[in-house]
Amino acid sequence: MVVAIDDDAMILRAAAKALSSAGMVCHTATTGAEGLQLIREHAPDLVLLDVVLVGEDGFAVCREIRRTWSHEELPVVMVTGLDDLASIQAAYQAGANDFLAKPLHWKHLPYRIRHVLQANQAFTALQDSTRTLRSVFAAHPDPIFTVDTQERVTLVHSGIRGEDNDSRPPLGTLDELLPKELAAEVRDHCQRALATPAEVLTLEITHPYENEPHFWEGRFIASAEDRVLVMIRDITERKAFEQQIRHMAYHDSLTGLWNRHALSSTLERIFQDTIRSEGTPYPKTAALLYLDLDNFKRINDTLGHALGDDLLKVVASRIADVLRPTDLLARAESTDVESVARIGGDEFCLILKSLGSPMDAGRVAQRILDALRQPILLEGHELVVTPSIGIALMPQDGRDVDTLLKNADRAMYAAKEGGRNRFQFFDSSMACRLQERFALEAGMRRGLAHGAFHVHFQPQIDARTHTIMGMEALLRWDDPEMGSIAPTKFIPVAEETGLILELGEFVFREALQFSQHLQTEGLPPIRVAVNLSSVQMLDPQLLERIEYCIALTGADPHNLEVEVTESVLLEGSGQALATLNRMKELGITLALDDFGTGYSSLSYLHQYPFDILKIDQSFVQALSGASQGRNLATAIIAMGKSLGMELIAEGVEDLDQANFLLARGCHKAQGFLYGHPMSPTDFRAFYWDRVGGEPKS
Ligand code: C2E
Ligand code: MG
Ligand code: MG
What we know:
By secondary structure, the chain is α/β, with parallel strands linked by helices.
């Protein structure tokens, strides 16, 4: 919409006609005052104003307009006389946007007006965008520079609000401002940005700031043909996050060791190395050690997960210590330790690369065993966690990561079956053994439900009089498919699966019931010994279970004996002592089984409330061999006696052994010489035969 102001009504009419025929609305006024009134009323897009008005000065009207509206808000086109340069100049001074010289060409008028309007809109738009750009710059947190073709660097925006200055002098050239290599990189990016004007190029660099290492990101974009805008951002924090995330992806959060993911990718790399070296004069061998802590789960369950976590941390650091590259022993064995990973709750893996010989892997495993043998003190508990370690060699025991891991795992199970706290190299027969283990577990569950377990009893004799002093309850399992299976075979699996808790309670019940039964038949009361595994020792309900069996059968706790091995004491930590003391309070007799095997640390014997020392059958068997065996047995007997303990020799098979033991003062014995483990029926007959009587009923 246009407001035209002219004192000549003819001209106004012609102008209105020309404009309306071009689709524009035109209001007309013949005086300045009328014109201003129309402007206020209609807010036109443009004013067409004659320089000469009757009794008025068109320039004054224009100035009046400008008092309220700016050039952009309301363009004013003044109509001047032809070639009246003074008027043209005065028009601009008064605030006109443009002028038209008379005589006016009516056909051209709408085009001129439209042109002025468009130019004005473009100008306004430019101003808007400049304003926006300025505020974007001002709000931008990062410093922005320009680099021109002479490599002069100018700070456009400091990154601090209100610090912009369009006319700062250049800071210097790239070479003056940056180290040589960095300047070259920046130069390269500037050139590329100029060559590809639409693209934003990014460059990440490290460059110290206030003596601290810092990461920076530079973004380059051409802002003119000869100028590149460079935005610099400090990305140190982001880099730290990235680093943290990468660390988390490859490390175990509890111990800081590698995780399974890191292990696999490293193994992959080493594989390629070893396989590549095959057929060369120096083929490489590497080893994977798979380590599982024996009975860690029980410790975790009994003493709480927080303590379990702490324990794992200590174990992790002990393993790592063993493998320190500074460790002279490791160097002497020429093993190159890649790293340690924790790949499950209590499972650790170690990679040893470039082994001198496979035996080196065994030596490292042995050092780990030694390092973990020392008790770990945590919150007043003295804990011993022993590991079972499986070793698989690459490439011979597996030509890919999965196979190698599986075989090292199998070797670890074999180490567990072999008695734990040991290491074991993989051999190909182990694959079958693992299957057998699963078959055993399934069979045991079936057996428990269908009564395939029985308890046999082996007499304990006073060798001087051949009277029966006691009996040991020994668990038997007859599977309908697998036949009779030895306890040495199924008990480790029962321990691992936790089935031992149920089985153990079964043995207590059967043993006490049988002993009660014998008494009610009229036989003299004898003590019945029940074996207890370390897993049972860590069971928080152990005492409850035993007390329940005592109450159920009405047995006298003084006729109950509990046998534990030395490993039970070590694995059970301080808790074992407390549990044993509680048993003692109940009146139960305590025996240390298989004495002399395992840890043979005599020092702790004083601390534990044992009544009986059972000399392991290996010592009894050694009596028939070299004199050394006899000396050892003699020493053990002497020591047991000096501690005031009752001694029972296990596995006595012949008279020579019996006589030797008797001569040294060990009167009690258990073994095939006196009686095999027997079914309750056979034992009952055996006992009646010994006492020379008959059952009452
Ligand atoms: P142990 O407690 O040392 O039991 C003695 C083992 O020696 C028994 O083996 C017994 O049959 C065997 N033996 C007895 N006299 C002789 C002999 O003169 N010569 C020879 N060569 N061996 C003899 P068994 O029954 O196979 O039990 C093996 C182990 O299994 C036991 O060793 C014990 O540690 C464990 N075990 C057996 N029953 C149970 C049970 O109910 N609970 C737990 N936790 N462990 C059990
Ligand atoms: Mg025993
Ligand atoms: Mg024994």
